[in-house]
Design brief:
Elements lengths: L2 E5 L6 E4 L3 E6 L6 E2 L10 E6 L2 E6 L6 E3 L2 E2 L2 E3 L5 E4 L2 E6 L7 E2 L2 E2 L23 H16 L1 E4 L6 E2 L6 E4 L5 E2 L8 E7 L4 E5 L6 E3 L2 E2 L2 E3 L5 E4 L2 E6 L3
Parallel strand pairs: 3-4, 16-17
Antiparallel strand pairs: 1-2, 1-11, 3-5, 5-6, 6-9, 7-8, 7-10, 10-11, 12-13, 14-15, 14-24, 16-18, 18-19, 19-22, 20-21, 20-23, 23-24
Length: 237
């Protein structure tokens, strides 16, 4: 059956299965897809699933509903469409075979969605400014799409998303060669706005654009040297 992959700062890639019917998306406790944050209206949007597919409709929400970065009032959902509702991202997947995997992960093994985070209240929706919405959308795209590419073999790359990504010996997520490479020698993490590269071992050279660094926020197309390995950071242009 079709499903949403729901993620936010408090919910990382969890699955909500969609059978035929109508689902209200909102922060009200009665909403079928409960998103507990004041950036979400009590009844923010709804999705109707039928034999002909799934249709999304905004319900007069305070902060609006976007699909792939475009504000919509109504939209027929397609595979991999990303719906933004407040601070939440809902990626729509069909029941077709290619959609059994998302970002290299088998969907059937992802945990089911469980609302968590801010307490659900009946107060007014916190309406974000246009600049705040734009910044939030930019950060969301960065978390979703940024990647670290091995320069000598661009077919090898890693998506850091908002979890720590370690560089180092065999126990690290990304192995790097060089003298005295033991454990984790550098780490990439998310600080809430940007990906940050931090040097963990004083004896291993860590450079960004040929400049030695201890800790630095990365920008699109920065070139990283860690030990003898070279990478390119691809963020938002």
């Amino acid at each position: 059956m079709p499903r949403f992959i729901i993620s936010s700062a408090a919910a990382k890639q969890q699955v909500f299965e969609l059978s035929k019917g109508e689902y209200v998306i909102g922060r009200d406790r009665e909403a079928q897809i409960l998103l507990p944050n004041v950036s979400v209206s009590r009844e923010h949007a709804k999705v109707v699933v039928s034999d002909s597919g799934a249709t999304l409709e905004d319900m007069g929400s305070g902060n609006g509903t976007t699909v792939n970065g475009n504000v919509v009032l109504q939209h027929h959902l397609q595979s991999k469409d990303e719906v933004k509702v407040g601070k939440f991202s809902l990626v729509f997947l069909t029941d077709a075979r290619p959609d059994e995997f998302y970002k290299g992960r088998c969907v059937r093994y992802m945990p089911p969605y469980e609302p968590r985070g801010a307490e659900v209240g009946q107060d007014e929706t916190f309406v974000l400014t246009k600049d705040a919405l734009k910044a939030m959308a930019s950060q969301s795209r960065l978390v979703e799409h940024a990647r670290i590419v091995l320069i000598r073999d661009p077919s090898r790359f890693w998506h850091p998303e908002d979890r720590p990504l370690s560089f180092g010996s065999a126990d690290a997520m990304i192995n790097v060669a060089g003298w005295f490479i033991f454990g984790t020698v550098a780490e990439l993490s998310w600080d809430g706005a940007r990906h940050v590269l931090r040097k963990n071992a004083w004896w291993v050279p860590v450079k960004v654009n040929e400049v030695a660094v201890e800790k630095v926020q990365l920008k699109h197309n920065d070139r990283l040297t860690i030990g003898e390995a070279r990478f390119r950071y691809e963020g938002e242009k």
